[in-house]
Amino acid sequence: MLSLAELEELAETEVQGEETLAALAGHAAVVECQAAADLLTAFAQENPGDEAAQDWAFVAVERVSECALAVVDGYEDVAAEFARAAKGERAAVVLGRLDDAGPMTPQRLAALDAETLELLRWYAHPWPVRWLWPPELDTFGRPIRPYVVNLFHGPGGWSVGIRDVLGADVDMVGVDLDPGAVATATAAGFEVICASVTDLDPESPGLRHVSGAILSPPCQPFSPAGLRRGRYAAAIDLVIKVIRYAGAAAGFLALVDADGVDAGFAPRSGETWEEVREHLQELEDPRAGLMAEVVIFPLAMLCRGGSIQWVAVEQSSALPQQIEDALFAEFRQAGWRTVEAATLDAVDYGAASHRKRRFMTAFRTSSPFVDIRPSAPFPQTTFAECVGWPAGRVVNTRGQRGINPATGRPKGGSSFSADKPSPCVTATAYGWKDEESGERIGQANIARLVGFPGIFPWQHVGRGEGIRNKAQQAADAVCPMVAAAVIGRVLDQQWEDKARAYVAELYPHWAAEAVGVDPQVWRRAVQEALFHTEEIA
Predict the structure, then answer these.
(1) Residues 6 or more apart from 239 whose CB is under 8 A from it?
(2) Which of 19, 218, 282, 455 is the most buried (most CB within 10 A)?
């Protein structure tokens, strides 16, 4: 703590009275800054030949004075920032000392005292404290269980594809703003944080050892099914401009000399990530601006000294080409080795419904070899085969849309033959029904159309049963089989045989046909099983 004499010397012109001095000495921000100064001074004394340590300690001591003056002048927000920086430095020193003691194991982590553990949790927040240490490496120096951050996680399409289809062993943490989707993903066994991606610091120490980032920003601003405000020329120009700001803020603005020779990177622009994101507030649909996170997170992680190696992105197939080009330009400028994109349809990977999406990947130091496309066509599953209906039915997708008084026709929707894969599943799929009998499909069948198991634990947070909310979750999700193909290529793991085995289990009529089971017997069994699943849910 600062002594009374030190405080008097510090603030002799600003502070009047011993009561004010006492309050200043006990102020939380000043106390935090003093604690960091004491720790860093001791660290400098332990390392007399370390110039950086001496400078670090000097800055920490000076910060105590600056923080105290900010408190005296009534700038509590400034004092809080000083305290936050001081606490971060204190955590970094503690982390360094723990590293010096040897590799961090779950046993060592569990044995930490409560105060140290709380400090490290604060430092890593909102990421798990275990991510403050690198994962264990194999004999080739590769992470045995790499860390992966999954932004805009949703109910878990990517995660099901990685865990249940591909069988990849990764330590993955997701982030999503929708509490219903987070509840669903958590019930399915995934680790997901309920938060807005734009509220997170992409330079968090908890992300330093992350190998891969997955992002699925909302597609509605670009999708033909929405208002498409993300495709307005002004919106495209603004998103591209912010993507460039992000590269400059991370310190990856390439320079060339007078002869056109590469001269490295310009210094970081000085804009904070909050300031970079503020430019997007002018958008009519703020969701369009979330495409900037595709470069904000990986480039910020990299400039912090991170270990990120790859990025995988899913978006509407109608994403403007200019935005994709701008994203890839920033990756290339930052020195990433390979960038690529492909439009993939879930039905080509065995799904019983179409879902065309644009998948973009970027690789920092390597180029993958595994092909993202199937070597041979997957057997096709029709809507009727998926839900256990007999052939010859027509599906009505109008639901409860009502009649448009101006035209006398239903407000949207249409119909399609159940004897082929369905069109892309939407939030109104809960109202899809047989044109003649009115028989509807439930959430278990909606899930299976998309590529999820019928028993997937869909959850709803809020009033009512959340029938539409659960359907919306499924409609927003990445098809797990496609996710397995994309991440299989990213990780250089063979995915195709695993995807075929998963689809055969998802749509068991394949197996029924192979062993000669009567289709009617199979349909009754599927309907009974799905009815039982809906009852349990």
Answers:
(1) 230, 280, 283, 288, 289, 291, 292, 323, 326
(2) 218
3-state secondary structure of 220: coil
Listed in order, strand segments (DSSP E) in 401-463 are 415-417, 433-434
* In 399-481, beta strands by DSSP E: 415-417, 433-434
Please state, in angstroms and rounded to a whole number, the distance separating the CA atoms of residues 233 and 323: 11
**Collapsed DSSP state (helix, strand, coil) of residue 213:** strand
Q: Which residues pair with 415 in a beta bridge?
A: 396
What gap in Å lies between CA 363 and CA 308, rounded to an integer? Answer: 9
Q: What is the largest CA-CA distance in the chain?
A: 94
Contacts of 300 (CB under 8 A, 6+ apart): 202, 203, 246, 249, 250, 273
Separation of alpha carbons 188 and 180, rounded Å: 12
CB atoms within 10 A of CB 185: 28
Give the predicted TM-score (pTM) of the model.
Answer: 0.88
Residues 300-310 have a mean pLDDT of: 94
For 233, counting Cβ atoms within 10 Å of its Cβ (0-12 exposed, 13-18 middle, 19+ buried), the class is exposed
Given a contact cutoff of 8 angstroms between Cβ atoms, the answer to whether 425 and 321 are in contact is no
Query: Measured at the alpha carbon of residue 165, what is the angle toward residues 145 and 443, in degrees to the nearest 5?
Result: 125
How many Å apart are CA 312 and CA 490, to the nearest integer? 8
- Band of pLDDT at residue 537, cut at 50, 70 and 90: very low
**Phi first, then psi: what are they for 425, rounded to 5°?**
-70, 135
Q: Is the pLDDT reported for residue 5 higher than 70?
A: no
Distance CA 30, CA 2 (A): 9
Helix, coil or strand: residue 253:
coil
- 55 phi/psi in degrees, rounded to 5: -65, -40
Retrieve residue 292's tokens.
Answer: 């900037």
Task: List the structure tokens of 143.
Answer: 């992470």
Please count the CA atoms within 13 angstroms of the CA of 201 that sit on its side-chain side: 15
Torsion of CA 277, 283, 287, 289, to 10 degrees: -40
Residue 314: in which H helix or E strand, if any? strand 310-316
What is the C-alpha R_g of the chain?
Answer: 28
pLDDT bucket at 281, cuts 50 / 70 / 90: very high
Q: Specify the pLDDT at position 120.
A: 96
Q: What is the DSSP letter of 347?
A: G
